[in-house]
Specification:
The chain is an all-alpha fold. Helices cover about 65% and strands about 0% of the residues. The protein is built from 2 helices and no strands. It has helices at about 20-35, 40-75. The protein is elongated. The termini are far apart.
Length: about 80
């Protein structure tokens, strides 16, 4: 009672065919056509949200760093 788990023949490096570069570029071009680029208003809002979130997190990390440093200096 033998079971063949893998019934497909193994591909050796010699049997693997490479796709031509032309088809790769055609595929890349087709994928770029599928991209939906954001309009100026959406891009501005999202960029502003990223900048504000970065600044807020920077301030929070700075405050935590200063507070921890103060506590360590107090203990030492």
């Amino acid at each position: 009672m033998e079971e063949n788990v893998n019934t497909t023949p193994e591909k050796t490096p010699k049997t693997i065919e490479k796709t031509p570069k032309k088809s790769w570029f055609k595929g890349l071009k087709a994928e770029f056509k599928k991209i939906i680029w954001p309009d100026r208003e959406a891009l501005t809002k999202q960029s502003l949200a990223v900048v504000v979130a970065t600044l807020v997190l920077g301030v929070i990390i700075s405050l935590l760093d200063t507070g921890i440093k103060f506590l360590i200096d107090l203990v030492i």
